[in-house]
Amino acid sequence: MLRVLQINKLYPPHIGGVEQVTRQIAEGLKDQTEMSVLVCRDKGPTVFENVNGVKICRAASLGIFFSMPVSLRFFGEYKKQSKDKDIIHIHMPFPLADLAVFLLGFKGKIVVWWHSDIVRQKRFMWFYRPFMRALLSRANVIIVATERHISCSAYLPAYREKCVVIPYGVDHRLRGVDLRLQQNFGQDVFTSNGYNDGYNDITILFIGRLIYYKGCEVLLEAMKNVVGAKLRIVGSGTLEAELKKKATQWGIDSKVTFIPHPIDQDLSKEFAGCDIFVLPSVAESEAFGLVQIEAMAFGKPVINTDIASGVPCVSLDGVTGITVPPGDAPALAEAMQKLVDNAPLRRQYGQAALERVRQDFSEERMLSQILLVYNELCADLR
Q: N or C: which end of the chain has fewer CB within 10 A?
């Protein structure tokens, strides 16, 4: 059985798309491989855990600065954890992992999952770029979620020959909704859930961290011109207080509700209870938007933005929803109003969304393709 070490910045219960994918791979392939995980802590001493059958080392950290753990202990744990492994699977960008491979080496196969370029900390790139290029050159396979992850990257086109496209899959924690939707197409089974408090307004949903690239300020500005709908913003982050203040200043606080990020079960209720899902991202830091496929798994139409990343490759304009220019509040308002006013179009896009998830974004498909990469890399060991 292949011995695999997954390496990422953090691991659930920390909230984040890459963390979710790391968990999906770890738990989904634990019976086909000897899978373990090395990450850092937000802050605190090193801990070793067994979570749902997966061995996890969370290396000590002094805290998170500029989105990166400060952890000298990570390098010691990398040396110990990787020494007997056949494969290390690194989720990038994570500069500590690049440095560890450069300084300490690794004799086995290296799989990199490239989730996004570093977009905001550009001044840091003068230092990090040589180590990043060294790891990309050393990697045996580079996984990306869409072709646009290659074409829109400032770095990956030079390594195109070793890139493999493997789309993300819907987290198994959302299973069960698929069958309900199969049985109830043609009915608005998830549109009346008590969220509307006696009103007939359509429910628009956003789920994500309240940070700069998510575009929530643009979303609030657009809501000023949308009638017949209420907005639920589910999440927390550095912009939470500012966004609540703007909702009040703009006189839309009566139709905008802020909800802390719930546990997975309650998150499913949010998806099930909405009529429209919106992902108004404004920067390429949003490289895919996993919440899109989660909403699509519930048969919901998606409004996304045409940023230079994989985002518009997930929910397709005019097929499973509407794509608008990033940062364009009037265009976003127009798209939301169009779906608010047109129930048949919502159902049409929602059904197409579910079919697209079944065909292209299943967790089983993602895991089987990753396992195939592992086995092909290590065929000589069998």
A: C
Model-level pTM?
0.85
310 vs 308: CA distance, rounded Å: 7
Nearest-angstrom CA–CA distance, 221 and 233: 14
In a shared domain, residues 18 and 155? yes
Residues 222 and 265 in one domain: yes
pLDDT at 188: 42
Q: What is the CA radius of gyration of the chain?
A: 21
Please check whether residue 350 is in contact with residue 301, taking contact to mean a CB–CB distance below 8 angstroms. Answer: yes
φ, ψ at 129 (rounded to 5°):
-55, -45
Q: Quickly state the pLDDT bin for 264 (edges 50, 70, 90).
A: low
The two three-digit tokens of residue 366, written as one number: 């993602």
Show Cβ contacts of residue 165 under 8 Å, excluding neighbours closer than 6 positions: 143, 144, 145, 146, 147, 149
- 142 and 81 in a single domain? The answer is yes
pLDDT at 105: 94
Token pair 């628009």 is at which residue? Answer: 204
Cβ contacts of 89 within 8 Å, gap of 6 or more: 4, 5, 6, 7, 25, 111, 112, 113
